[in-house]
Amino acid sequence: MSWAFECLEAGQGPTVTLLHGLFGGPSNWAAVIPSLAQDFHVLAPQFPLDGSVPITSLQPLTDFVREFLDFKGVEQTALCGNSLGGQVALDFCLKYPHRVTKLILAGSAGLYERHLADGSLPKPNKEFIREQAEKIFFDKRHISEELIEQIYQQLQDRRYVRFLIRVAKATRDYRMDDELAKVRVPTLLIWGAQDEVTPPSVAHQFHEHLPNAQLVFFDECGHAPPIEHPKKFSQIVREFLAQPSSVASSCCQ
User: Fold this and answer.
1) Strands 213-218 and 250-252
2) Among residues 33, 74, 112, 179, which is most buried (max CB within 10 A)?
3) Which pTM value belongs to this model?
């Protein structure tokens, strides 16, 4: 499949690739990129989630990551994903383990996620959108009128809404419980203690099933740690990437 690649890119050094969620984009990482770019070559691609490419499983998004990295000439990378991006990162790691040096998952899909996968079309009104956004962020200041308006306009296209629901169903139907034990690379789990989409219990499940994982909770944080706590997120990710690969599994608050 032929993709049109768009991304944010900065820095030099070992590559870190940042994968956004279903309603997100590369700008979700804008506040963490400058810090990471001090020591790393940072890539934040735009997933093909505009409805132009049919996606009925996770495979096309995993293929997209592989072809994007090939296009950029990157053989190995640390992968960091939020929400849907986390599940794609996991799937890529399972399929191409030789290409992933380390894994960072923030509020990752793959085990359980509250989303629009029940088959119903959301009501295209701003009150509904605001209610959903309030489940994403602990700090409601991140829910701007501009964000509400942007999503509202997107949801006026019913074909696009149906596309989003198909993608959400694909992630829901791909339960990764039995696959996680195969992920051998050092993994960092960063979770919002107030995450309502992938609650803290999901973080503990990931930590239990991944053989080589550390778990860190951010207090006063919802489903998007890199947006709500970019400075802390960047610092912890940089420290993790600097660790030797044979890191012991641990959990901290």
Assistant:
1) parallel
2) 33
3) 0.89
Q: Contact at 8 Å (CB) between 71 and 8?
A: no
Q: Is 102 helix (H, G, I), strand (E, B) or coil?
A: strand
Alpha helices in the chain (DSSP H): 33-36, 59-72, 84-95, 126-136, 145-154, 158-173, 200-209, 225-228, 230-242
Q: What is the pLDDT of residue 178?
A: 86
The edge-to-edge listing of strands for the beta sheet with 250-252 is 7-10, 41-45, 15-19, 77-82, 100-106, 187-192, 213-218, 250-252
CA distance 50 to 33: 24
Provide the CA 27 distance to its chain's centre, in angstroms.
13
Q: How far apart are the C-alpha atoms of 139 and 130, rounded to whole Å?
A: 13
pLDDT at residue 44, as a whole number: 98
Q: What is the 3-state secondary structure (H, E, C) of 27-54?
A: HHHCCCHHHHCCCCEEEEECCCCCCCCC
- pLDDT at site 28: 94
Residues of the chain with pLDDT under 50: 116-119, 247-253
Ramachandran sector of residue 107 (left: φ over 0; alpha: ψ -120 to 50; beta: rest)? left
Residue 169 near residue 85 (C-beta atoms within 8 A): no
